[in-house]
Design a protein that fits this description.
- This protein has 186 residues and is an alpha+beta fold.
- It has helices at residues 42-45, 63-68, 72-110, 112-117, 146-168; strands at residues 7-17, 24-30, 37-39, 51-54, 141-144.
- The chain has a 5-stranded antiparallel β-sheet with strand order 3-2-1-5-4.
- It is elongated and about 125 Å long.
Length: 186
Amino acid sequence: MSFTNLYYKRAVGTARACYVCHKPTTTVLATINTVDFLYTCDTHLADPGFASQVGTSSDGVGAGGAKMGLSTEEIAKVKSEWEERQKKKAEKAKEKEKEKEKDDKEKGAVDKESDSKKVPGSVSPPSSTPAAPTPTPTHQRYTLHRDIFSLRLAEHRRRRQAVQAKELAPRLPGAPMTPLPSSPPS
C-alpha cells in the first residue's frame, strides 16, 4: 500500500524522539489518513534536504494561483465581485421576508382570534440567512525530500513483508523431527 508524498504538520501532546536527531519533539508530520507519520523537529522542517513546504492556499492566491496563471489583482477583483453578489442575494432575501411579514400582518388582523389561542413560547423565531461556514483549521503541508520519502516507503514495505511472513509461516512445512538414518561404514 503506497501513499502520496504529502504530509500535514500537526502538534501532539506527548513528545517523542525526532526521526532525524532523536531529540524530543511534539511536532509530527502525518499523511491525510495517518497511514504514515514521523516526528520531526521544527528545524528539520526548514531544511530543504528533509522537507519543503507546499503552498497552503486553496483559493488561488499564492502557489496555487501561480500555477493557474492568475495574478493577485485578478483574484482580488473576482473575490470582490462575488462578495457583492452575495450581499445582493442577502438583501433580496431580507426584502422577501419583509413582504411575507406584511402579508402575515394583513392576515393577522383577520385571524386575531386564532393568534390569541397560541402558546407564546411556541412561536418560532424568524429564519435568518444561513451563516457562513466556519473555516476549518488548516495544517501546514509538506513534501519530504525524495530520498527521505523513499526511506519511508522502504520501511513500510519491510513492515508489510514481515506481517506477510508471519501469516505465511504456520502454513509452511516444519523441519524433520526424526534424525536421519545413519549409513553403515563400509
